[in-house]
Amino acid sequence: MIVSCGEALVDFVPARDALGRPAFVPLPGGSPFNVAIAAARLGARVAFSGAVSNDLFGTLLDDALARSGVGRELVERVGDPTPLAFVALADGEATYAFFDRGATYRRTGRIALPPETSIVHAGSLALAVEPAGESLATFVLAERGRRLLSLDPNIRPSFVDDEPRYRARLERLVAGCDIVKVSASDLEWLAPGASFESLAAAWLARGAGLVAITLGGEGVRAYRRVGVRERRAPAVRVIDTVGAGDTFCAAFLAALDRDGVGGRAALEAYDDDRLDRALDDATFAAALVCTRAGADSPTAAELAAYRAANPLAARAAHRDRVDDGSEPETADAEDDRARPRRAEEIDPADRGDDRRDGIAPHSIGRAAAARAPDDERGDLRERADEDAACRERRDDRIEREAGR
Predict the structure, then answer these.
(1) Pairwise CA distance, residues 197 & 63, whole Å
(2) Each residue of 229-283: pLDDT tens digit?
(3) H or E, element range at 253
(4) What strands lie across the sheet with 9-16, from one edge to the other?
(5) Cβ distance 398 to 184 under 8 Å?
(6) Hey, how many other C-beta atoms are within 10 angstroms of the C-beta on 194?
């Protein structure tokens, strides 16, 4: 059983009403919430641990958990308002206005685990704020050695209450968790300019068992002490990337749960073939959610059908580098024809926003900041500038790493 711990919120995505007028549609969201929903849709037994408001948006979130078969016994219903994220699209660029004052993500869910829990996952905004951050980190780390621990910080710098304290908390979690999943954007904030390899090696030395770095359309690299596996993502026509990273995490954990990996020893004994299949599940599920509006994750049947319809991409090339310094495997010609095209190879009309993986529905765009009330505009503009700088550094970094 998987327990996903953290925040739940509501995304308002742009749409048109029956008369063709601009409108917004409220959709359930929040990184750990999305992980719980996506893993349940893939057939895993899952519970969500987090605070959910008693307001009407909280009812929307609670109903979404129930429809997907997610256990709600660890949900804490509270009187605080639900965090809201309003999404705008302009020239293919998604911008967000986030309203979170006094919201539920500063609280944790019920701090208890069912005895059958084998995997505990934690993230994202809840780790960056007080008092939830410290409570959640302490709770997760107390399970070290008893369950498989998974971390996705999904960093949003503008929402960090106390940066030194937050960085120290993440260091503790990286050292204590078995699986650490991060995006290139996360790494750009954590260690600007550092190579993926050096950072992954440092985290493994500190105690992590597997470090998965997601690279958007380039796929994923999964580092272990015995080497690194690289899996390519299938090329898709992107509608938006909301929930892609969360779906990756959910599909990977669901595969581990299905294979009986419920602790560090089982993770270390997990052979490369099974790890590749789990990573492929994750990259394909994330790609599939990008072809839909919002964090609409696939079911197990939809994922199986999608993989069956893309047999060449399912055999995506991988690299297997070990400590003896041997060279990576080279894909054969047939696999190379199936590889997804890099951004510079794709016609701009087909690109959509596929290079923005890692921009979760909590980023703030400059356009949204300009429309904010006067008393919030300065803070939102600062968030927008910070997020935009992170995106630019991340894209540059992915291109540098891809050229290595």
Answers:
(1) 42
(2) 999 999 888 887 888 999 999 999 999 999 999 999 999 999 999 999 999 999 9
(3) helix 244-258
(4) 22-29, 9-16, 84-90, 93-99
(5) yes
(6) 14
Q: What CATH number corresponds to the domain at position 103?
A: 3.40.1190.20
C-alpha Rg value of the chain to the nearest Å: 20
Strand partners, 222: 212, 229
Reading the block at residue 185, the tokens are 């954007």
HSE-CB for 20 with a 13 A CA cutoff? 0
**Amino acid present at 101:** R
Domain span at 318: 2-402
Q: Under 8 Å CB-to-CB from 95, ≥6 apart: which residues? A: 87, 88, 89, 363, 364, 365, 366, 367, 368, 384
What's the rounded Cα separation, in Å, for the pair 195 and 211? 13
Which residues 6+ apart lie within 8 Å of 228 measured at CB?
Answer: 197, 200, 221, 222, 319, 320, 321
Q: Which amino acid is at 155?
A: I
293-331 tens-digit pLDDT: 778 999 999 999 998 887 655 444 444 443 434 433 333
Domains held by the chain: number: 1
